[in-house]
Amino acid sequence: MKKLLTLLLAFGFTFAFVACGNTAKTEESATEEVVEETTEATETAVEEVAEETEEAVEEVEEVTEEADSVVQDS
After folding, report:
1. Phi/psi at 23 (nearest 5 deg)?
2. Taking all residues of the chain, what is their mean pLDDT, rounded to a whole number?
3. Is 5 helix (H, G, I), strand (E, B) or coil?
4. What is the pTM of this model?
5. Distance separating alpha carbons of residues 73 and 4, to the nearest angstrom
């Protein structure tokens, strides 16, 4: 009788640990969150660089126009 009870308890604990030990989904969701955050940060950085590049191009065009007007005046 003791052996049967021990065996049933062992199976019960085994099934309980198997049912509660599912960590693969947690790791996947954490990885997905990190990927999403990284993607958002990258997109934000790219947008900022694009805006700064456009501003720099506009400044260069203004300086070029000023230089052209100075050359034409002389």
Report:
1. -100, -5
2. 84
3. helix
4. 0.50
5. 106
